[in-house]
Amino acid sequence: MLVPVKWLKDYVDIDIDTVEFADMMTMTGTKTETVEFFGEGIENVVVGKILKIDSHPNAEKLVVCQVEVGEGKTVQICTGAKNVSEGDIVPVALDKAKLPGGIKIKTSKLRGELSEGMMCSANELGINEFYVDDKSKDGIYLLNDFDGMEIGKDIKEALGLYDAVIDFELTANRPDCRSMIGIAREAAVTIGKKIKYPEIEVKECDEEIDFDVKIENPDLCMRYGARIVKDVKIGPSPYWMQRRLIEAGVRPINNIVDITNFVMLEYGQPLHAFDLNQVKTGKIVVKTAENGEKFTTLDNVERTLDDKMLVITDGEKSIALAGVMGGLNSEITDETTAVLFEGAAFNAENTRRTSKVLGLRTEASGRYEKGVATETSKTGVERACQLVEMLGCGRVLKGIAEDYPTKQEKVVLNVNPSRIIKNIGAPITLDEFVKILEDLEFKCNLKSAEEIEIEVPDFRLDMEQEADVYEEIARIYGFEKIPSAQLEGNVTAGVKTDKQKFMDKIKETATSIGLYEILTYSFVSPKSLDRIKLPLDSAKRNYIKLLNPLGEDTSIMRTTMMPSTLNVLYTNASRKVEQALVFECGHTFTPQEGLPIENNHLCIGMYGKDVDFFVLKGSIEKIFSSIGFEGYEIIPETNNSTFHPGRCATIMYKGQYVGTFGEAHPEVIENYNLTQRVYLGEIDLDLVYDNSDRTIIYNPLPKYPSTSRDIALLVKKDVYVGQIEEIIEANGQGLVESYKLFDVYTGSQIADGYKSVAYSITYRSKDKTLTDEDVAKVHNKILSELETKLDAKLRTN
């Protein structure tokens, strides 16, 4: 917020250097961004009056002006400006004058004619032309309408170009500081002075107001007040007011609009002025808009409203967007003769929503969004009427039309001052404690050293709990005065939990077999569930919606990690990465009453020339093996719409679902703009963790040699290798050390409906060297069981 120091001094006596003051404000919590001094570098520039203008004898685009500069002195100045006329009051840089930026002016000749100085534009005086009227833009700065423009007077004094402006960076929780008086309160307590509030007294005429105000939505509009001014004379506001608005970053418009902006900057209370002649019904009704209602705002843009937006109406038509912007149909114009001043308190969240949905942000909405004290609305209207009377631009009617259905409740905090002082760690006495709060305009009732009752002033909307009192005491006492102290407490070793070690082992194993770890956001788009063809009745469609999402694409908490993994695979493929194998250990979220359940999941995704279903299956098995997860079953899955039919499997453990993996369905691949086969799987790590045996058992090196036998079996195509391996394990009689599938074959030598499955079985005994008879006994038992249970026969060709 831009704060002109000269204006600030109206409310508090600042008798120290401006830079020192700005630094002190930073130390008490009102951070200073910059300090800018107007008028720096301006010397020997005065107010002048153009007496005569003649054409330049040697240049068509130049004129020769005779300019009075005070004390009866006249100088001749040549200029090419097109906006000057005889009798104009202008700033004149005389011989040897200096302007901002180091520019020096001296007497010279322009095309043979003497020029004893220069008439200045607003920019040349360091004034942004955004703030000046149209007549002075791109030309000489015309001062005809300004008061106090005495010929020969130093321009810095005449235009008030000797002020400093401090730019304060305000935090969102301090809306009370978004005003001159709010900053003055902070300044007063910072430098140990008393604040001087404006004395508001409205001089009313005998005519009484005849107007009604009705609020239909007291939750959205807590208070609405209106006063009427008649016999209005629209014109420019006095220069002192314009100058204050300019230095605070607001462009002057006319006296009525400038008054509303002045009060907004002074008190932080947004006001609006309606042309009363356009409010023909004699009443104001505050209500929500009609869904789809069209409304043209002051910026001449037609906007479409919805039924959650609050509008100000005259009972028949909308005339303003509450807290945001007025309507073009009630704008103050040069023909306005009667004005209705509005001062209201609107709901912050509703104002924020309206502003966001319409893409319309104003100085008013910026204040209402952060909160405006209800009690300030009437003060603002009274102050505006007082300024109308001071400027002589209207006649204020007696009385105020007001509806006040929702009173602002007083906030009372009961805190323990001794505890606060102890925790701050500074030698603050109880008297100092109370004085700091009273200087901040809190009302204190000190009951004991252990209890104080604090009544919070209406404008401090941020004070809610004892922690807020800590901050007030510490910042005003001075953070720099709080002594440093060593940290105290018991030091404990930081170690990882067993589950953290479990997750680390999974990541270590995954990276060791060639997978790359990825990290993705936990919030996704609801459309991602459609992209993976998730059934409409799937439990994973019961997701958690974010209250304030960054956008539609990040509006829900994920219930599956597969869409995130597919996005990563698409990103790699779109960048011409020929092969990608990735994994992520992350969370999915299941809603329940209270806080949602966070589930740990592992998601693996891959594509590439050497990647297939069995590469993915082997990766999962390797990870399971490294963490001691055994006894699971891999069962074919044909009804999962995310995966290719017949190329998908489900992992089960004692009847519990562990996860699914396989080749992504062609439509899913197409939804992610991928052009090759993609394999992915998702596993419930919480279930795996609960049922894995991570005990490390030492086995000595074998003393006796091993022997192996190869078998090639003819089995039906619908027989799974897992069934064969179960029989091998069950009949090994403690001698089968390992077995390995090394070939699966179908072809011309194999009958239709059959396949050849070849295993290498390794036998070893812990007690002796095995003989052929020992091995044959077990080996034949295995073959017999395979034939009996699976109709498996040894292949002979």
UniProtKB/TrEMBL annotation:
Keywords of the record: Aminoacyl-tRNA synthetase, ATP-binding, Cytoplasm, Ligase, Magnesium, Metal-binding, Nucleotide-binding, Protein biosynthesis, RNA-binding, tRNA-binding
Binding site for Mg(2+): D462, D468, E471, E472
Co-factor binding details: Binds 2 magnesium ions per tetramer.
Subunit structure: Tetramer of two alpha and two beta subunits.
HAMAP family registered for this protein in UniProt: Phe_tRNA_synth_beta1
Coiled-coil zones: none
EC number: 6.1.1.20
Pfam families: B3_4 (PF03483), B5 (PF03484), FDX-ACB (PF03147), tRNA_bind (PF01588), tRNA_synthFbeta (PF17759)
Name assigned to this protein: Phenylalanine--tRNA ligase beta subunit
Organism in which the protein naturally occurs: Intestinibacter bartlettii
Cofactor(s) named in the record: Mg(2+)
Residue ranges annotated for the FDX-ACB domain, each copy included: 702-795
Family: Belongs to the phenylalanyl-tRNA synthetase beta subunit family. Type 1 subfamily.
Catalytic reaction annotation: tRNA(Phe) + L-phenylalanine + ATP = L-phenylalanyl-tRNA(Phe) + AMP + diphosphate + H(+)
Major site of localization recorded for this protein: cytoplasm
GO-annotated molecular function: phenylalanine-tRNA ligase activity
Compartments, as annotated in UniProt: Cytoplasm
